Hints:
heterodimer, A: MetI-like fold, B: MetI-like fold, 12 helices
Amino acid sequence: MASTPIAQPFDFASEQIHTKQRGLWSQAFQRLVRNRLAVVAGILLIGITVVAILGTSWSVVQRHDPNQQLYVTASNEDNTNAGPTSDHWLGTDNLGRDMWARMAQGTLFSLKVGFGAEFIVVCIGLAMGMTAALGGRLTDGIITWVTDLTYAFPDLLFIILVRQAIFGRAWPIIGSGDPQIPGLPAILLVTILAISFVSWVTICRLVRGQMLSIKNQDYVTAARCVGASEFRVVRVHMLPNTLSTVIVAITFGIPTRIFAEAALAFIGLGVPPPNASLGSLISDGQALLQSNNLLVIWPAIMVAALMLCFTFLGDGLRDALDPRTRK
Amino acid sequence: MLAYAIRRIILMVPLLFAIATITFFLMHTVQGGPFDSDKPLSEATKINLDKRYGLDKSLPEQYISYIGNLLKADLGISFSNDRPVRDIIGDRFPISLQLGIFTFLFAIIFGLILGIFSSLNQNGLGDYVGVFVATSGAALPSFVLAPILAIIFAVRLHWFNVIGWELWDYKTMVLPVVSFGFLNMAFVARISRASMLDVLRQDYIRTARAKGVKEFTVIMRHAVKNAIIPVLTISGPIFANLVVGSFIIERAFSIPGLGRTFVESVLNRDYGVIMGVTIFYGTIIVGMNLIVDLLYGIADPRIRY
Lengths: 327, 305
């Protein structure tokens, strides 16, 4: 090994490369990517979503009409309650409908409810939480009381009540959710609205608490001292520091909304037949447990997979976004 | 402490009043009335029915008379079978309560055992099994687990029944309790494992070991006793949730509890039952929150009111 000169001028230029500054989000992303379980969960979620979208819109993937009842095959054999075949990948149900196509339809509906409801939940929750934290004492008192009140309701029962109250009347823009009047978007919106109307309080509390704790931190006071406007303090300091908590809450929120929709569907308040959601598929399958248990196994696996993926992704995101848990 | 308790109880009143008000108006916005059916009733019958149940009066009048009755602890009568709502709740709620209590015990006991067992074998095989169960539990809500368990243990193995609920008859009790409680059991297991791992690293555990205290005593007296506090905190909401949230499992196993009654009443627009059950459940939740807050002060002497 060649001897190296002992006295060498310190190379600032190369040192700069090592200490290259990385933003909060790129650091968090790199930490997330290093979490193998979270990455697998994320990829699986994207895969399920893509297959569900293609499986409802592209006939090559969809293969069969999810609502077409085919009691007998071309060769005149019984096609109801059939097991998986090369034609019907997941078998058929008691009415001879293709389970693969129905599963795609149901999964997509549940995902739409999950993402849609969570989107509204976050919008209301962020707005209310920020108002509570930044507004005056009276505003804070009122919003806190409303969240306490919503917490005092049994949440699924409240969702049922709200759902029934907004269902079946002709709303401007979103129309009616009545099965008599065709159109899936209306029932989708009714479900999403009922769930989000009840569920925003969790995010609201989270945002309020986080903002209140940030409000009096030294760096926020410092920003105020150097003359930053209130708007700038909120936009540059308070919002980004609240956002990481919110993102984690979203990942855990989406499966909760899917769960709520499935619970609604399970007791018969979900999508009207022949349309399917994961909850209604389980509910229908439950009735036919003795004759064809595959009908309940497929949607059950799908619900479990979705829940598991969101849990792992949420855990990964929490570890990635919260520097305090960094190892 | 007493002053705090009294203040909290007084604060419950406006909360319950608001619940009653919101439910009343929400319920009356539901399309259709309680006597709508496939066979239209004659005009005279309808007028008489409306009169009988006070539906002919204006909404504010109905509201005032309802709240007035509520103050006399009268929850009104069911519109579909004329029974007092109080009797219906008295009939159906014990079943939901039994289901809730057994599920609660299942979730807490097995969750604690699993969590403590995992923490004592940290990173060992037992820990992996425990963590696997706790994680998979998060992905198995009751309506997913119920049919799967029913297929395996009732349809295939014939160990248990698929429907019904009979107190102390294990054949009817095991499946509802396990499928209803699994999610919460997993939650308890995760929490107790984390808090045990935290406690086991504390100095006083090392001190106890250094003194030569038997390992069993260290775990039971020093570690578990402290690690159980977070589990106590969540046990209140879990209990309230299990008691008021059983309608899914009641439907899945055809258990005639209050949850199923509520769902039926919403579908039939049975105003009396909807109101009664919501207020009843709201009182349970608000009351449970109060009890937990008070118990917390007793369990953790550092908390002062």
